[in-house]
Amino acid sequence: MMYEQQQRLQQPMMKMDVRKKTERNKSIEEERLEIVDLSGMSLDSLPNPSLNLASICKLDLSNNNLQSIPESLTARLLNMVVLDVRSNQLRSLPNSIGCLSKLKVLNVAGNLIEYLPKTIENCRALEELNANFNRLRQLPETLGFELTNLKKLSVNSNMLLFLPRSTSYLTALKVLDARLNCLRSLPEDLENLINLEILNVSQNFQYLESLPYSIGLLLSLVELDVSYNKIKALPDSIGCLKKLQKLSVEGNPLTSPPHEVVEQGLHVVKQYLCQKMNTGHQTPTKKKSWVGKLVKYGTFNGHGKNTGAREEREAFIMPEYRSIDGLASPSYMGMFSPRRLFSPRTFFTN
């Protein structure tokens, strides 16, 4: 009897000892991870490594003359968290980069890269991708479907014609920098970028002529730079961006808002656009557009009546609605469908 009681008392202690041992082994394993800095050594090729590649967590190969990275090398960097190969002569990245399942930061800026391998989508832990100053003409079409942890995407100073439609699925994205490209348009489904704080699509010069109306649904947006493009009119929905603190529009042939309004600052611009939206969607018929309902109930301008949530939602979802004047093309009508805006996939919160 005494023996059985002693066994019961010892068992919890044995479990605790095992847990401590596991934590200790984990910390030892983390201490064994190496940071390797081979930057600025004028390397034309990589030397044979003198250590286990799986032990490297950060590899800095920046500011060299590398023209390629061996497939076999990348495939063995199993614990890589940061890979910096900026300012080299790389024309492509190895397909085996998709093996880097723990990679969080990838910097390939300042190379000659014309495309990113589709396998980069397998780097699902990736939080920051810097591909500035390359020769990119397009990004992988399904990039946004897989890199759901991406917080910063920098692709400025390339030759991009479009951003993939899947960009709108990057719901963790906070910074999108696509200036100095050849962008013709932006994805229409921007409203899903619920965490986007900074959007820079400036200096696409003669190519970018308009912005999608959904840009007014970027509820976390703080900075918007659309300067030096060919934009003639800002979407009225920009007046709904309550958190917007900085708006750069210089270098555009703007007619709406007019120059004298822009000169008075962001607050006046937002007032102008909001008022234009409120008045522009009034219809003479009894059937009001669903956007008019959104304005009435305060979704856009924040001055709605204090009605119950259930009553408001019933007012939003209308079986019959009119398209917005001037934006009646099939692509815009799909974007403004009430069913689409209020689907479970849409995040429409303050």
UniProtKB/TrEMBL annotation:
Chain intervals with Polar residues compositional bias: 1-10
A GO term from the CC aspect: cytoplasm
PROSITE patterns, A to Z: LRR (PS51450)
Record carries keyword Repeat: yes
Keywords of the record: Leucine-rich repeat, Repeat
Annotated coiled-coil segments of the chain: none
Name the record gives this protein: Plant intracellular Ras-group-related LRR protein 6
Organism expressing this protein natively: Abrus precatorius
Gene: LOC113847313
